Amino acid sequence: MTSIDWSSLEAAALAARGRAYAPYSRYHVGAALLDDAGRVHAGCNVENASYGLTICAERGAVMKMVSEGGRRVVAVVVVTGGDEAGSPCGACRQVLAELAGDAPVRMLAVDPAGQETQRVDSSVDALLPRAFRGSLVTGA
Ligand code: THU
């Protein structure tokens, strides 16, 4: 069982948030995942002039994890700005449900100095109850 170093996940998500490409919404999001090999994978939102092509921070991090050989998400941190912690969108919840099972999800809001303003601890299962899963398709 991989132990969860929350402070390094938080630092990775915060650093990734600083690299967000969000010229349209100006809502900067960073995410960091711990995988089952103990590695950390971070992502930020990457927007596009064709707005629907935007990729959220969480899904960016999942794509990075899988392409680097990670197969399971053990823990997730999402960092946004302002007073209220952001929450993964529906698409990201579905993607996390596939590879994260019931992993814990920490949502943090930070002020411009990077100081925490709100923390919400949840889990993938709590965020997406009765998720649609591949086992329903494959029967496995
Ligand atoms: N966004 C994320 O990166 N993650 C979420 O879970 C919610 C939304 C991004 C997408 C877009 O770039 C901006 O936040 C505003 O929707």
Break the fold down into its secondary structure elements and pairings.
Blueprint: H1 6-17, E1 30-35, E2 40-44, H2 57-67, E3 73-81, H3 90-100, E4 104-110, E5 116-123, H4 124-127, H5 135-138
This protein binds tetrahydrodeoxyuridine.
Could you walk me through the main structural features you see in this protein, from its secondary elements to its overall organization?
It is globular and about 45 Å long. Strand 3 (73-81), helix 3 and strand 4 (104-110) form a beta-alpha-beta unit. The protein is of the alpha+beta class. It has a single domain (6-130), classed as Cytidine Deaminase, domain 2 (3-Layer(aba) Sandwich), CATH 3.40.140.10. It contains five helices and five strands. Strands 2-1-3-4-5 form a five-stranded mixed beta sheet. The chain has helices spanning 6-17, 57-67, 90-100, 124-127, 135-138, and strands spanning 30-35, 40-44, 73-81, 104-110, 116-123. The chain starts with 5 loop residues before the first helix and ends with a helix. 30% of the residues lie in helices and 25% in strands. The mean pLDDT is 96. The protein binds tetrahydrodeoxyuridine. The site of tetrahydrodeoxyuridine has 14 residues, from helix 2.
Mean pLDDT across the residues is 96
CA radius of gyration is 14 Å
CATH class: Alpha Beta
Structural class: alpha+beta
Can you summarize the main beta sheet? 5 strands, mixed
State the helix count.
5
Q: Strand-and-helix sequence, N→C?
A: HEEHEHEEHH
The quaternary state of the protein chains shown equals single chain
Topology, number of strands: 5
Ions, cofactors and other ligands present here are: tetrahydrodeoxyuridine
Helix content percent band:
25-40%
* CATH topological fold name: Cytidine Deaminase, domain 2
Enumerate the strands of the largest sheet in spatial order, edge to edge or round the barrel: 2-1-3-4-5
Number of domains: 1
User: Poorly predicted ranges (pLDDT <50, ≥5 residues)?
Assistant: none
Cα-to-Cα separation, first versus last residue = 24 Å
Overall CATH architecture? 3-Layer(aba) Sandwich
